[in-house]
Amino acid sequence: MRTCKTVLVLLVVMLAGSGGAKAQTAKADPCEKAISQADMNECYGKEYQKDDARLNRVYHKAMESLQHDLVQAGSDQAQKQSAQTAVEDLKAAELAWIKYRDLQCEAASQQYQGGTMASMIHSMCMSMATEHRIDEIKQAHENGDGKLE
Question: What CA–CA distance (Å, rounded) separates 64 from 62?
Fold first, then answer.
């Protein structure tokens, strides 16, 4: 159990260095009551699924906002081109980020492959990277009353 907590701390430090400009505060361990490794694997897997669903909601709201800007541009070609570029750039950034996240988390869990902790480490990494991505999207696309969640 102590090894799991140490690994969690190391992953937080590793991903904090690759995150956005906003400083991250450590959140409570949602799986601290899990007793067995199987329980921890399942719990962290579910946490990642929640984080991924949250990211999808934030991403779609950001995309809806950009699409709205595109419609609002009307016949102003310069504004329309700018809005279209913003839509395309967010899509491209998200696809690139997914590739980065997958490679990063594969690397983070590689040393545990074949062991019972591998899926937990992978899920923890995926969750942390996803939380960072949510913050990045919000920082870039929230403005005034236009909150994404």
Answer: 5
